[in-house]
Structures are given as C-alpha cells and as structure tokens.
Amino acid sequence: MRANDAINGLILILLSVAMFAMTATFPAFPGQPYGPSLFPRVLATLLVICGALLMWRGLAARLAGARWVEMAPWTRDPWRVGSFFLMIVSLIAYILFAETIGFIPTAFVMLLALFLWFGVRPVVAIVTAVVATLLIHWFFATLLRVPLPRGLLDRIL
User: Fold this and answer.
1) Residue 13 to residue 66: CA distance in whole angstroms
2) I need a labelling partner for 85 at 20 to 30 A (CA). Which of 77, 96, 117, 137 fits?
3) CB under 8 Å to 4, separation ≥6 — which residues?
4) Is 48:17 a contact under the CB 8 Å cutoff?
C-alpha cells in the first residue's frame, strides 16, 4: 500500500507535534542551558518541515491525478510484508520493555533479531548488534547526555 505523500506528511506532522509536546515533561539539568529535551525538539522541528514538504508534494501529485492510496508491488511479497510488520513489532516491543529491561539488553535483542531476520550470518549479527548497541548508548548517554533506561543493569551502570 502506498499512501499519497499528503497523508504521510500530515501523519508525520501530527507525530512530530506530539513528540515535541512530550518533551515538556523531560526534566531539566540544573546549571545547563539545555537538557534532554533539546535533541527531540530539534528533531521534531525538522520532521515538521519534512512533513510540510511531503504534504506539498502529495497535494501537487493529487492535483495531477494521483490516488490517495494504492497498493505497492512489494505488498504482494509475504517476506517483505513480514519484514514490515517485524519492524513495527520491534518498535512497540522497545517502547513496552525498554524501561523495565533497560536500553542495552532491549536494543541488543532487537538489533540481533532484525539482523538475523534480514539474513546476516549469526556471528556477524551478534558482533554488529553488540557494537551498534554500545555505540548508540555511548552517543546518547555520554555525548548528548540523554538518560537512557538502565533497567536490569541499574546496579552495573
């Protein structure tokens, strides 16, 4: 299924506004001019701009005769449809379990499952999942000072 870019742009704008609004609940760091809400707010603003550009393009295509929704050729391939839903399920699983289990174990399992699903050899998938998880954790926790959920690793980290 392929939706017109105007629909995708509108959804992107709505999600970005919700993301921006959610950052109002983030705690501020005393003595710092910025906090953990800075990066999500910058990202939300950029996504709103992208959503507006998508809406512009979609409305222009609609005026030229394009449909609001049409089926894409990849939707006839069951493996690709499964991959699409696996991505959605993995994101929902991260949202549900990251706070309890922690970022590092959740991200590792999620990345490993996705690598294996997409055909990466098991040894390469394990090494890549470990390295990517640690790099992402270091980037957000250390460089951007975003407090990632520690979960089960609270005593170690």
Assistant:
1) 21
2) 137
3) 58, 61, 62, 66, 67, 68, 69
4) yes
Q: How confident is the model at residue 106 (pLDDT cuts 50, 70, 90)?
A: very high
Same domain, 66 and 79: no
Domain containing 13 equals 2-71
pTM given for the model:
0.61
Is 82 in the same domain as 106? yes
Q: Which two tokens stand for residue 135?
A: 């790099």
Our measurement of the distance from residue 45's CA atom to the centroid of its chain's CA atoms, rounded to an integer in Å, reads 15
What is the arithmetic mean of pLDDT over 137-148? 92
Query: At which residue do the structure tokens 């690598």 appear?
Result: 115
Q: Point out the least confidently predicted range of 89-93, 97-101, 148-152.
A: 148-152
Give the domain-ending residue among 54, 71, 88.
71
Give the chain's domain count. Answer: 2
Q: What whole-number distance in Å separates Cα of residue 149 and Cα of residue 48? A: 27
Instruction: For helices 5-22 and 38-63, give the axis angle rounded to 10 degrees.
Output: 160
User: In terms of domains, do 100 and 49 share one?
Assistant: no
